[in-house]
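Aggregate trends can hide what the representation actually does to any particular protein. In the encoding step, the backbone of a single protein was reduced to a row of integers, each denoting a local shape. The record that follows shows the chain in one-letter code together with its fold in token form.

***
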Amino acid sequence: MPERIDFPALLAGHTVVIEMINSGDAGLPVLTQLLRVAQPALGAAGMAFVEFGPTGGRVIAATGAAEWALGRPLAVDDPDTVCLLSGPRVTQVRVGDLNGKLAAELAGSGLRRMAVSRAEIGGHTVGSLHALYPGDEEPGAEQQGVVGYLASCVAHMYGDQSGLPVHGDGPVVAALADGLAVVDRDEHVRLWNPAAAQVTGRTVEQALSRPLPFPLPPSGQVRDHRMPDGRWLRITSGDLPGPGTLRVVTFRDITDQQRRDHDRELFVAVTSHELRTPVTVIKGYADTLTDHWESLTDGDRRQAARVIGQRANELARLVDRLLSSAAEVGPGDDPPMPFDLGEALRAAVVDLPAELRRRLVLRLPGDLPKALGHRPSLATVLTELTTNAGKYSAPDSAIEITASGDGQLVAFRVSDQGIGIRPEHVERAFDRFWQGESGDRRGYPGAGLGLYLVRRIVEQQNGWVSLRPRVGGGTVAEVRLPRG
């Protein structure tokens, strides 16, 4: 160990580091150059810088006899980590006094002493700088002072976010819930925090020194961007002060918000259309009765009353669907009970609209086993399935209801002879507000809630419902419930 530090060499080398920064260099190249300058000036055998985050540390820069440690992690509960993060900011340490695995590795490399200083920003430790020596002589006050000064310089680099932290897990940056990136004048990533990796699926290694995986909005502006996998990001950007022409970018996943906004817009569009039709008809017939009562025959009056009643029932069913789709439908706290599925189906058919009842063909075996579930909800399930079957089939075609059972399950099916369903649509048909292609929507209006409610009701009773094309044309909806 030299008796005095080579300050002229240190100042000359430090000038080179500053020139690198002024020319736009940042991050690891600058940090490594700083260590290369410091090592001979301090008479050290090696230099190393450990970057710390919430989950521990990692050697991100090393020179000389310490190069073998480059990339080595330090767990947050490692005794060496605890020692480095406690006590005075600047100190000298005898390797033999450390108890962790790193100490044994250092001793095995012939390194016995080190001058250590933490790099801190506002009391937060971002890393520690180490000057390592092979002999038993302690680093003096001058060596410790210079190491402390250099550690402050490194901390300043972290404060400027000039490509540091390397792994994006500095104590402040890592705590952010939003993705954070810093890009240079070429829009290449210099900083990438853990939330950025989580939001985009790109690790730090995959992101650093590469272009952003999404378009960069102008400074001070916000942009919503859809990623190739279908997720939506909300991106903002702003210029960082200083000569480096760096820009900070924040982003978050707003896919759920986009979906909610889409559902809300679709809800308003669909319900306004579906509510308008029966209300218009009811108002028209009511106005006719009010304005032309005396000139109408008894038959005309009764027909107007029937239409008003039918449309009012449609309106009531639509309101029930809308309310049920916004609430938890199903049996609630009532426990599942065995019930006679055949008798429950026959009873539910009685309450169906007359135009549906005349088209139904029931084929229910007399020895049908009991089902386990919530009998009152069966009426809603059958109403929605038969209404759906009637809507997508000719007015004079039959709708068949059949049932069967085995040792574990009891099932019933609603089969129509209508337009059928494409195999790729058998699952999407149960999505809320979904109604197939736009051509289907024009020809077959509806809120797109019936099958969505059916699936929720049935699955809450430990059953399941499915759709499939019917042989010969049409669709089969099948509900399976546990056997009682």
